[in-house]
Specification:
The protein is an alpha+beta fold. The chain contains 3 helices and 4 strands, in the order αββββαα. It is elongated and about 60 Å long.
């Protein structure tokens, strides 16, 4: 019995992660060429821009925000533009600085993306456009690429001296 109690105590002092709340922070949908756009053949060009940001909002409490901007064009005309900020509040403790940065920069966006994808699809279909099911995104690879770019930028001024 005492071994179980000591194990439970050790777990409580290790890394902790909990989702407190997931929400849409901002959503925008524009279809500047409606209804004429519906008379054209549907062969869209889809542009996707992703950004994420995070900030501390309390002791061991962080807000992570995933921003998606989707521009769909038919030839040169914009069919629609969607911008969505999917956010979450997360309790995170017991991590080192590098692990915390990775959690906020890759793990949290991985959690937020399916919610953002569903919200965007709902907006698009309610505007009478064909469903837009965004492909999964590898936020771990994006995070690794950003870290490599930052390291290269930090090394570049040193090489010029």
């Amino acid at each position: 019995m005492s071994e179980e109690n000591s194990t439970a105590g050790q777990e409580a002092t290790g890394p902790q992660f909990a989702v407190q709340r997931l929400y849409i922070k901002d959503a925008s949908f524009e279809a500047p060429n409606m209804p004429a756009i519906f008379t054209k053949g549907w062969k869209p060009e889809v542009g996707l821009e992703l950004n994420n940001a995070s900030r501390r909002i309390g002791d061991d409490v962080y807000e992570a925000v995933l921003t998606l901007t989707i521009t769909v064009k038919l030839e040169e005309e914009t069919a629609y533009l969607v911008e969505l900020q999917q956010a979450g509040i997360f309790s995170i403790s017991g991590l080192g600085e590098a692990e915390l940065h990775h959690t906020l920069g890759a793990f949290c966006p991985n959690l937020l993306f399916p919610y953002a994808r569903e919200a965007i699809d709902n907006l698009v279909t309610k505007a009478s456009f064909p469903a837009l099911m965004l492909q999964p995104v590898n936020f771990d690879a994006m995070y690794a690429q950003q870290m490599a770019q930052r390291q290269a930028q930090q090394e570049q001024p040193e090489a010029q001296h």
